[in-house]
Design a protein that fits this description.
alpha+beta; about 20% strand; six-stranded antiparallel sheet; globular; eight-stranded mixed sheet; single chain
């Protein structure tokens, strides 16, 4: 990678929520202070909202790292669950195995655990990320848990973090009792132009720049105009610009590199980007039944709106051509997702970056314990496509070899955990010149025998 050329210890603009790289702008500092207040006050809970990529998860990870040892934490990240599944997930975080318990037993076990921890002098904290996906029934369970108390104190501290839709949901008439329990609300806005510059320099310093000027001074204004100060977009643009400088064998980034990155990503200025407009929210639905959650064709909230669930633990995001309106630019390639020898999804690849991982903020979500939060990315260019590991726990393999970065060829099978992603280059024609068959068919036959049972949380 480019770290050697730039004389850096590590990649400065990874998308993973690493607390070491947290830049505390004025707004981020205030949001963190609100989180910290939950440890000292138990009357109500705190709600932190922010746009996609604003840094909520990184703040949470930093906050958790700094907690004292007398704080017992349950952290819930998968929120597309029923009320019973939510209670089970909380108990799992506290060390229980609750999957055969009925709802009444789940509640009784939780209440007893909270009272025991209080009596032992320990504080109990529940953090729910992506809370905007919780159903009204599940949010009602959250309210009931917040009411567990002794004669003097409530015994459970709660932080809800999510996208702006969470505020709208909390303000609905059906959840008025829950809204009354909220003590503090804070909306995490994007960085200012000044903070964007500080954010970039901070991440470079943490990565080992030692104060060296890696980005030319005239880069920062361009980066701000095209990223809008959204940390995740800043990371994406800066990393792509550094790759542009790297290919030119230069140890510093010029404004021309940033412009080349913008052209590669096909970004208009931030104010004009249609992708950042909030999706129209459908009316809140009741919590799914057990039969609903077992289905392989249910709907689920994805990165920018509604996504399609094609198979166990798989969510195809907005690039899925079968469930979304066509995008003007023609797909250059596609991924066929194979699980247990079955094709369970397909994702069109257009010029730009596609993030694959376990959490709902990815373009392709694979909800499996073998998959990291942000596992890998695929960078699609007009004449090439590259898959790159994002420092995942289990890595990615191509042709049975673990790789960090790989130039994809038609028919390549990228293995992520127990899932196979078959890469089909739409620019190579529909058939294999030697065998007379399409590479997808050959790769899918190979993938169908490569794994055993898929384990999905």
């Amino acid at each position: 990678m480019y770290t050697d050329l730039f004389r850096l210890r590590e990649l400065p603009f990874r998308l993973s929520p690493d607390p070491e790289f947290l830049y505390l702008s004025k707004n981020h500092s205030r949001a963190k202070a609100y989180m910290e207040s939950t440890i000292w006050f138990t009357d109500g809970f705190v709600v932190i909202t922010g746009e996609i990529g604003a840094g909520k998860t990184t703040l949470i990870e930093t906050f958790l790292r700094e907690l004292e040892k007398d704080v017992v934490v349950a952290q819930i990240n998968q929120t597309q669950v029923s009320a019973v599944e939510f209670l089970q997930a909380v108990l799992v975080q506290f060390g229980f195995s609750p999957f055969k318990m009925k709802k009444a037993e789940l509640i009784a076990t939780l209440n007893s655990f909270l009272i025991e921890q209080y009596a032992a002098g320990r504080k109990v904290l529940l953090i729910i990320d992506e809370a905007q996906n919780l159903s009204q029934r599940t949010l009602e369970e959250v309210r009931m848990l917040s009411g567990v108390e002794t004669t003097k104190d409530k015994v459970l501290r709660i932080i809800l973090a999510g996208q702006p839709e969470l505020n709208a949901k909390l303000d609905s008439p059906e959840l008025v009792q829950l809204a009354q329990r909220v003590r503090l609300r804070f909306h995490l806005t994007a960085l200012t132009d000044e903070d964007t510059r500080g954010y970039i320099l901070h991440r470079l310093e943490v990565a080992g720049s030692g104060g060296r000027e890696i980005f030319a001074p005239d880069c920062f204004d361009i980066i701000y105009r095209y990223s809008g100060g959204v940390p995740r977009l800043v990371n994406t643009l800066c990393e792509t610009a550094m790759m542009s400088a790297f290919t030119a064998d230069r140890d510093h980034v010029l404004a021309d590199d940033v412009r080349a990155a913008i052209q590669e990503l096909q970004w208009p200025e931030f104010a004009e980007r249609s992708a950042i407009r909030r999706p129209v929210q459908s009316p809140a639905q009741p919590a799914p039944s057990a039969s609903d959650t077992a289905s392989t064709d249910t709907s689920s909230t994805g990165r920018f709106g509604t996504a399609s669930r094609r198979g166990p633990g798989l969510y195809v995001g907005p690039n899925d051509t079968s469930t979304h309106e066509a995008v003007p630019d023609t797909p250059l390639a596609k991924l066929i997702v194979v699980t247990d020898g079955r094709t369970v999804g397909e994702l069109a690849l257009r010029t730009g970056r596609t993030i694959i991982g376990r959490t709902p903020d990815n373009d392709l979500q694979i909800d499996s314990r073998f998959v990291s939060r942000h596992h890998c990315q695929i960078i699609t260019k007009p004449n090439a496509c590259v898959v790159e590991d994002l420092n995942s726990t289990n890595g990615i393999t191509v042709k049975s070899k673990r790789v960090r970065r790989h130039n994809l060829n038609d028919g390549d099978v990228v293995t992520i955990g127990r899932h196979d992603l078959i890469y089909i280059d739409e620019r190579t024609g529909p058939r294999n010149a030697q065998t007379g068959s399409h590479p997808a068919a050959e790769a899918e036959d190979s993938a169908s025998t490569s794994h055993g049972e898929t384990q999905v949380l």
